[in-house]
């Protein structure tokens, strides 16, 4: 009798548990998405009709496949190639307007390309708006729980610790390191030119610039040379390739917990990257204890800030984990994006020799006969107006950032809309930067003069200029990135001239950042002038 009663209770608990799971699954995959879409629909927001349970995944795949079949590799530089990156975003924009909704499985997305809404969004300071939470697990091997993908109090705490170290009064001390590393790379270019036929070297420059930027980050931020960071950069690049699929970005079905061949490779790389970074941290601490480092690097200052901080430490925050994730974030964002920006800038200057000459002439006028004078006076950087305009226009057309995203962790008021909790908002940067309604009929053209009076006068809606993000999550490293670009480009343009190689194939692709699929291949010659 008692055994029967126990069995009956046990089976009742099992049934209740199964029902609870089914109810939760039903809520997450059916009721919640239906409620969100209904709220958006009532506000006049339309989009492609989803099907259960895949949403608009099949339509995305169909549009993507059609674009791949109809796109020729190596298209002209002047062609508007942005439609090839995420063609479904562009196609739906034409069908449903600047604001629309779509689904990937149970995830509900809202595409936004209305400048006024971007302005409103940039003013929101609440922690109820952050990075999409489903990306947290997907990009964890590459970025950990670092500032790029953290949310809430964890993000706010990290930003307060990190941001002061990237103020101008701090990063200006890194100018000497940037100069030294660039000079080393330039010597290798000079040797290639000497060894080339006719003094013209046909070079793929982006790999050299990645190594240069990696060396700068290692020396300036971690006090180690590139030789120590070489393995880290290589493995992070491999992780980036593995995680740069659109299926990861838009939350399509990702079974990252299964021991597939791809997942096992990701897990192995993550473990190796973590081990290598911890070794760099340990070596750096030992050198500091011995007093062999004359100045504190970013890593040491971050450790001190974390220890000395009076702020309440977020639950689960661990200093060792914070430092590893900080290194991952800086290695990824600090060297990759700046190197790509420099590569695209030199490609555009090779295509527009008149601007290449204008910038070179300006450098000569500002710094005189000795280029080193430029780096001894921070005020001189503000006088490099031509170079600044070229950088701003280049990152408008070929900025490393391709898509920006936000998730509403609570209902958010946005202009005349209420964005429901759980919606993922997306912004396609190349399209925003080429919108003729904002930039004019010449939006596809390389015209640095549009920035002669700064960003605020370059277009109708400056809030739609997003090379470094927007709002309270604006890239904290933008001051360092701009300084590095100015130093590197000033040095390079003072010594070399560039033109497009006949072998250059123009094919920008998405690999978490805007990447040249076949490299940036240029003809490089020694500049014959008095600058030096």
List keywords for this structure.
single chain, 532 residues, alpha+beta, Cytochrome p450, 5-stranded mixed sheet, 3-stranded antiparallel sheet, 55% helix
SSE blueprint and pairings:
Blueprint: H1 2-42, H2 57-70, H3 87-96, E1 99-104, E2 107-112, H4 115-122, E3 129-130, H5 134-138, H6 140-143, H7 152-162, H8 168-171, H9 175-195, E4 200-204, H10 205-222, H11 226-242, H12 246-249, H13 261-290, H14 298-308, H15 319-351, H16 353-367, H17 372-375, H18 378-382, H19 385-398, E5 403-408, E6 412-414, E7 417-419, E8 424-428, H20 429-432, H21 436-439, H22 478-495, E9 496-500, E10 508-510, E11 514-516, E12 521-526
Parallel strand pairs: 2-8
Antiparallel strand pairs: 1-2, 3-5, 4-12, 5-8, 6-7, 9-12, 10-11
Helix pairs in contact: 9-10, 9-22, 10-11, 10-15, 11-13, 13-15, 15-19, 15-22, 16-19
